[in-house]
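Work Package 4 report. The design task specified in the project plan requires that, given a folded chain encoded as structure tokens, an amino acid be chosen for each position. We show below one input record used in the internal validation round.
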């Protein structure tokens, strides 16, 4: 295989990853998004109907009461962020009250707005269908409190700040909160890329450089890993890559300054249901690639 400029094609990596395509498993430490409750992912949240719901065991409360709050759904979820807020003041992002956990293995308390234990999140990407926590009503509470939750089914599919039940202090007549009249954000339209045809090994070694595993396999074979590179343009400064192969999570290739794996740019084809998403990543040594389409930290979902 001939090098392109100072780069050379280094490897094809086939890995299985369900939560974060690049293998960066979420730990639920999402205090930096307490206000927006929005995951730092590279795709917008869903606006379609959510399969998840919140419920409480009471619609009334007094200071010091403990209210059971349950998050459940008709489908599993891998991450969540749960808060209670003042139902009458939508402009406030501060949390109300604290929570007590009932499952220390799958849930954890967070400190939002310097208010310890004022939110709950997941501890790993383990799939769940129900979470039960206890909300502790503070001494000084607004007349009405509403619960909100962000739920992540998997990395590219999540619902932001779903509204839950409204509970009222004793003596306050319950009534539905005044919902924001702002319409939901319009999903950006995208144009699907149309492939010129099935990948082929025709021209390998002549008009394009190729890698095939097993050697000599046909790219049309579902068990064949195939990578090709072709230069194009008047000055041959543009490159076209073709990448295919069997994988439950993603397949990827890297561009390297040398022949060793580590500190290299990686390009991933990530399986997302019936779609394939393409994203840039970076790999440090023999580790999972870290998605660079949006910089993540331990404070992202």
């Amino acid at each position: 295989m001939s090098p392109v400029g100072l780069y050379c094609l280094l490897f094809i990596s086939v890995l299985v990853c369900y939560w974060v395509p690049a293998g960066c498993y979420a730990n639920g430490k999402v205090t930096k998004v307490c206000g927006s409750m929005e995951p730092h992912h590279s795709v917008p949240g869903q606006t379609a109907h959510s399969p998840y719901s919140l419920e409480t065991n009471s619609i009334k409360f007094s200071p010091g009461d403990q209210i059971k709050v349950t998050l459940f759904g008709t489908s599993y979820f891998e991450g969540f962020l749960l808060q209670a807020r003042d139902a009458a003041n939508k402009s406030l992002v501060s949390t109300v009250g604290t929570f007590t956990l009932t499952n220390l293995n799958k849930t954890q308390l967070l400190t939002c707005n310097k208010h310890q234990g004022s939110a709950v999140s997941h501890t790993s990407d383990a799939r769940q269908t129900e979470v039960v926590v206890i909300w502790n009503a503070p001494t000084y509470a607004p007349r009405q409190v509403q619960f909100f939750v962000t739920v992540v089914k998997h990395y590219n599919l999540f619902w932001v700040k779903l509204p839950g039940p409204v509970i009222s202090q004793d003596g306050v007549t319950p009534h539905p909160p005044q919902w924001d009249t702002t319409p939901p954000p319009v999903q950006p339209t995208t144009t699907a890329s149309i492939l010129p045809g099935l990948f082929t090994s025709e021209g390998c070694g002549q008009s394009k450089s190729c890698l095939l595993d097993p050697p000599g396999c046909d790219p049309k074979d579902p068990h064949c890993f195939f990578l090709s590179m072709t230069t194009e343009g008047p000055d041959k400064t543009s490159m076209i890559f073709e990448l295919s192969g069997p994988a439950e999570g993603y397949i990827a290739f890297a561009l390297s300054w040398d022949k060793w794996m580590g500190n290299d740019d990686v390009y991933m084809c990530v399986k997302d249901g019936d779609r394939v998403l393409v994203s840039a990543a970076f790999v440090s040594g023999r580790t999972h690639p870290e998605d660079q389409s949006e910089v993540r930290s331990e404070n992202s979902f």
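Residues 47 and 183 are 10 Å apart (CA to CA). Validation will be extended to a larger panel in the next phase.
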